[in-house]
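Figure 2 data, in text form.
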Amino acid sequence: MIVMYSCNAKQEKPAEVVVDKEQIKRDIQAKEDEFAANYNAGILKNIGYYADDATTFYQNRAPLVGRDAIVEFLRSDLMNNSNKITFKTKEVFVSNDGKQVVEIGYFTVVDSSNTTINTGNYMSLFEKRDDKYVCVRDMSASDMPLQ
């Protein structure tokens, strides 16, 4: 008689991550609102929106790599105008573990007389680092006709 036994350690499943997509959308919108408020007030020193290793793709220029380069570009942009910007998060696509979020949004830029001078769409990729979402990649496209 042959008797075979097998001992398998009970494999535990990793704890299921609960992702609240609506809360994450609110969190991302709050980051956009904070970014716009800081930009509109000319406060860029501690912007906190971009990761240190972020890359942003602005129209008609080479990509800006690193938070310092992005903030410097924004600072020079502010010196040349008094425009105000707003952002509206339209959709978020959240990874199953909640560590990455792709945001699709809409922006509006108005001049000092509150006349709309630019509108368009943007896409941003956020990563959760130190329990906070930071933007690691973004790009935008105007929907205004070429002049």
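Caption note: Strands lie at 50-57, 64-65, 84-94, 100-110, 116-129, 132-142.
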